[in-house]
Amino acid sequence: GKWHMGVNCKYRRDHCHHPLNHGFDYFYGMPFTLLNECQGTDDPELAKSLQDTYWLYTQMIILAVLTLLTGKLTNIFSVKWKVIVCLAICGLLYFITWFSSYGFTKYWNCILMRNHDITEQPMNLEKTASNMLKETVSFIERNKHRPFLLFVSLLHVHTPLITTEKFQGRSRHGLYGDNVEEMDWMVGRLLDVIDNEGLKNTTFIYFASDHGGSLEAHRGNARLGGWNGIYKGGKGMGGWEGGIRVPGIVRWPGVLPAGTVINELTSLMDIFPTVVQLAGGSVPQDRVIDGLTLVPLLRGTAQHSGHEFLFHYCGVFLHAVRWHQRDS
Questions:
Q1: Residue 254 lies in a domain
Q2: Beta-strand runs (E) in 254-325
Q3: Which residues pair with 322 in a beta bridge?
Q4: Which of 112, 133, 165, 298 has the fewest CB within 10 Å, making it most exposed?
């Protein structure tokens, strides 16, 4: 699915940010992130204000060249052809310089990879959902006879809300609702495969979002970034609960009782030590691991989260702190 960490550092094929350089054995998905440009809309998302400025300067150069050309041809004022040609060439080079980056964002950014190979450039948005499903199902079938870790990061509920025709218009909540319904269907398909392969009682499944709804995302009066209920703020709003408080849903029939609700505050950082413990391993001891295993909470052997403090940073700036005093 969506990796969003990029691929290279210093040169084209060093692959320092690639999933295969970060512990994964197989990768299929989008190495970058979804942008409006992937859909080919007239509403660019990448450095929009900067692009508007570049385009304004380009128009000013074009106007200057046309003015000089008109003055030269009508003898209103005298100007050398060399000046007009030089200005036109400089303007063209300026346009090519910035447009080669932003004008081809769909080609450079919106790609799919399998391991180190690019499979689609740009990717076919209509087939992306089915491609993701096929790859995921194939992975489960190849590894069903041994322990496996499968991380699926769907492209759904992220602008520009790529939704196949089958699900468009089905929800009462606009395009975002359609996108949620398609994501729900995809997750259901994957759970069906787990069940049909006889892996239901031996597979630990964790479903969550990486952040709350993006309240800034809208097109006219239509919201494109979801809704955060009673919680203030949203994605990118500096640590308010609407942006960082999301549900986590766990499924492990035969091991964890159904219908249990745990109100303790946990973190997505806890997934790593949880998976390591379930796999019978131990987390690295040569560094500080911020996450804590969720197994005691899930099994009911612990009543409170092991986190006394949780810190939320935006970049290097601390925006929010949660303190749950021990034994309180």
A1: no
A2: 309-314, 317-323
A3: 310
A4: 165
Q: What is the pLDDT of residues 39-73, one digit of tens each?
A: 876 677 777 778 888 889 999 999 999 998 888 88
Please, is 52 exposed, middle or buried when counting C-beta atoms within 10 Å of its C-beta (0-12, 13-18, 19+)? exposed
pTM for the structure as a whole: 0.84
Q: In 10 A of CB 62, how many CB atoms?
A: 15
Q: Which residues of 275-304 are buried (b: 16+ CB within 10 A; e: fewer)?
A: bbebeeeeeeeeeeeebbbbbebbeeeeee
**Digit-coded pLDDT (tens) for 285-328:** 999 999 999 999 999 899 888 899 999 988 899 989 999 888 77
Query: CA 181, 155, 260, 227: dihedral to nearest 10 degrees?
Result: -70
Domain that holds residue 58: 48-107
Buried-exposed string 11-27: b where 16+ CB fall within 10 A, e elsewhere: eeeebeebbeeeeeeeb
Whether residue 35 is predicted with pLDDT greater than 90 in this model: the reply is: no
N- to C-terminal Cα distance for the chain?
41
Q: How confident is the model at residue 104 (pLDDT cuts 50, 70, 90)?
A: confident
Helix or strand or coil: residue 64? helix
Residue 36 lies in a domain: no
Contact present, 218 and 224 (Cβ < 8 Å): yes
Residue 284 lies in a domain: no
- Compute φ and ψ for 22, nearest 5 degrees: -130, 40
| Amino acid identity for residue 265 in this structure | L
Total domains present in the chain = 1
